[in-house]
Design a protein that fits this description.
nucleus, two-stranded antiparallel ribbon, 51% helix, two-stranded antiparallel sheet, mainly alpha, 4 strands, rRNA processing
Length: 252
């Protein structure tokens, strides 16, 4: 009997849903059952999701803690991830990927020697000729404060009072001849050269500091390869490496 029904079904016509009547074509395509099924499934899926969210909100523990609460914050009512502090600059990353610690240490020592040579040539004189520190003079009465003359107290010419270096006394100026150039153009040229040397010195000092930090970071990564237990004490920054405390281990 079942085989007869199957044979009968193979002979029957396929069911076709009617299309949109001609006078209703302005309303668009007529929705078929398969279209309705897709729309109904989507609607029920959304309703089930909303019901699950309502239940989750009702059952939520107000004292519940998530670690993401630390790494995110509200911005205009929307949760946004906190930006992490920069741990390493692009320059440091590039050097650490392409060079080893021996090269970095060699460059740092080279910069340190050049810095010492520049310091010995410049004698740490101020490039602007202005004194950074303050020199305080003490007097006994208020009248002496009002009548105080710095050039006479230092026994030098008023034009040389602001100098940090090479400030001769009046007796020295009267007794000795002026040595060196007195041409204004040459003096300006010497001032520019001195400023350039100080600029080079500051750049080399900064470069030596950078190489020192990079060397420390490379050495820290080498130390981390050891299987000894360790605890991070402070995070890495662009100016300092990460600090770890290693477990004391007796060497045999």
């Amino acid at each position: 009997m079942s085989s007869f029904r199957k044979a009968l079904k193979s002979q029957q016509r396929n069911h076709r849903e009617r299309s949109q009547p001609g006078f209703r074509k302005h309303l668009g395509l007529l929705e078929k059952k398969k279209d309705y099924k897709l729309r109904a499934d989507d609607y029920h899926k959304k309703q089930n999701t909303l019901a699950a969210l309502r239940k989750k909100a009702l059952d939520k523990n107000p004292d519940e803690f998530y670690y993401k609460m630390i790494s995110s914050q509200l911005e205009d009512g929307v949760h946004a991830k906190k930006e992490k502090a920069e741990e390493m600059t692009e320059e440091q990353l590039k050097v650490m990927r392409t060079q080893d610690i021996k090269y970095v240490e060699m460059k740092r020592v080279s910069e340190a020697k050049k810095i010492e040579r520049l310091k010995s040539e410049l004698h740490l004189l101020d490039a602007e000729g202005k004194q950074k520190n303050k020199h305080t003079f003490f007097v006994d009465t208020k009248k002496e404060v009002d009548e105080f003359d710095l050039s006479s107290h230092l026994n030098t010419a008023p034009e040389l009072v602001d100098r940090v270096y090479n400030r001769p006394t009046l007796e020295t100026l009267e007794r000795c001849r002026i040595q060196g150039t007195t041409d204004p153009f040459t003096l300006q040229k010497l001032v520019r050269q001195r400023k350039h040397q100080y600029k080079m010195l500051s750049q080399r000092i900064e470069r030596e500091k950078k190489m020192f930090v990079i060397g420390q970071k490379i050495q820290t990564r080498k130390d981390l390869a050891d299987k000894t237990k360790k605890v991070k004490v402070s995070k890495e920054t662009p100016n300092t490496p990460a600090i770890y405390r290693f477990e004391a281990k007796r060497k045999r």
